Amino acid sequence: MNPASDLPGTANAYARRERPLRRGVGCRRVGATLLLALAGMLTACGGAPNKVIVYQNEVFEANETFSRLFDAEVDATCEAARRALLSQGYLLTTVKHDSIGATKNFQPEGEVHVQIAVNVVCVPEGHSQKLATAYVNAIQDRYTLKKSANSASVGVSALGSLSIPLTPSDDALVKVASETIPAGPFYDRFFALMQRKLAEQADER
Fold it and tell me: Which residues, including other chains, have CB under 8 Å from residue 100's CB and lie 6 or more apart?
């Protein structure tokens, strides 16, 4: 043992004072690394859910169309669509010789309202244009009733001020959902009704 080596100011004494500092820095670095690793594991296991990519479901298959070919000219085809919508209680919003728009309102629940908007476009087919294709698209919008209640403060000597709700006012319908009705029975029924209306129009001539 060399007492002189332990004297203040010597190299050995300086090294011994520096070792605890280096150990502390190392512990902090290890702790930070562990925290980062733990954060990565939590993100991988319980992170935000994956986004739903809607367009991946758009396959554009020819057998799933919103159209039907009719043995009639454009004017007669769209007239059949107009009569079909009117016969089912739809309110016409657009009336042209080659396009029809209409809406209908429903109330399936007390404070839930649904509106269906139907759009029909008629396109001529063939050189003689004696045939027409009707393209139909229906959108369903869902609304809910949002109430805005007013309140009034009433002074009570024993309790202080009380807030008493009054009758709700300024109620409004708020859209909560909107989607295109997929191809299926809804359109099949509509096209069948159009075909019947075309037959009726032929009998009227």
Answer: 78, 81, 82, 85, 92, 94, 118, 119, 120
Contacts by 59-64, CB closer than 8 A, 24 or more apart: 64/183
Q: What is the pTM of this model?
A: 0.65
3-state secondary structure at position 188: helix
Q: Give the pairing type, strands 169-180 and 160-165.
A: unpaired
pLDDT band per the 50, 70, 90 thresholds, residue 31: low
Q: Average of pLDDT values for 81-98?
A: 97
Contact at 8 Å (CB) between 150 and 169? yes
Looking at residue 111, what DSSP letter applies?
Answer: T
Output Rg (C-alpha) for the chain, integer angstroms.
37
Beta strands in 50-130 (DSSP E): 67-70, 91-95, 99-109, 112-125
Structural domain boundaries in the chain: 3-44, 68-204
Under 8 Å CB-to-CB from 169, ≥6 apart: which residues?
148, 149, 150
What homologous superfamily does CATH list for 68-204?
Kinase associated domain 1, KA1 (3.30.310.80)
Q: Please state the φ and ψ torsions of residue 160, each to the nearest 5 degrees.
A: 90, -135
